[in-house]
Request: fold
Amino acid sequence: MEELGARKQAILKEIVEAYIRTGEPVGSKWLSARLENAVSSATVRNEMADLTALGYLSQPHTSAGRLPTAEAMRLYVDRLMTRRPLEKERQEEIDRRLSLSTGDPERLLGETTRLLSETTGYAALTAAPAAAGVLLKAEMLRMSERTVMLAVMTASGALRSRFCRIDGDLSNEALRRLSDAFARLAGQPLSDISRAQMQTLLSSLGENSLQLAGIVAGFYEMIGELQQSDVHLTGEWRLLQNPDYPSETIRQLLGFLSKRERLSAMLSACPREMQVLLGSESRCPELSGSSVILTRYSSGGRSSGSLGLIGPVRMDYARTIPQMEYLAKTVSRLLSAAW
Reply:
């Protein structure tokens, strides 16, 4: 499309932001006042007519104001939007809530999803990637006489952790031998770690094998889980309360959100940088009336998983995008610190 001059850009930006706030068509009289009468209503009308001819605005009725088109929303997100930095109080609240889950990656992702949905009012999702890769390491931390925390990490940065109960008294030396046995598995493809291999490992532990069986079983279950993408989704019900979604649209959208494999595919396709998909850009018919914002978090410098947000096209991008960036940065920091 034609390159817009500064005045047309300023007018279009005001129209998009007014539409995001109210969902209503924007008239030239209101817009002229918004621009502090630096431009007359007649000039604003002419500029709006030009923007309509260029495909950036639509007019629902002859006497009505203008609404931004998909092209206008794209231009706004890419070039016209002024990001609103996250307030220090909000940053501190995010840090406080997520720090409570440090050391437990699954809990951390679940809390991140809840926090993102609560603060935006949209449906939020997080995912660690399917890890058809290589085991990097497994670590155990004794929490009490009868409990250990087992954490497993792949070379791609995917993480799993769980608490395992010890049956009976067990020395730290026995746990060290098991830890050494897990360490010898590092470098193996996840798909090569078999049940038979676990049975052999358990037998090698001698008299402590029965007491350690629960930990070995937990390890093997996590290896299986790491070969599947784990999607945390919350806030679907918030979309039911959004006036931008008519009943048929929300029905289709909720049907899409119930299909974890499709959500996983969408998240795994996210590039490293922030990505905003507006309406039909997602290539999912069920999302034609929605926007999807995707970004990545990392662990130890590795791309590790994705954060996503799904809401109406009339989304407050200037506030939401910086918040997602801060969440991704915080999750990355906490995951890296845990390892």
Q: What stands out?
A: The chain has three domains: 6-80, 88-129+230-338, 135-226. The CA atoms of residues 100 and 108 lie 8 Å apart.
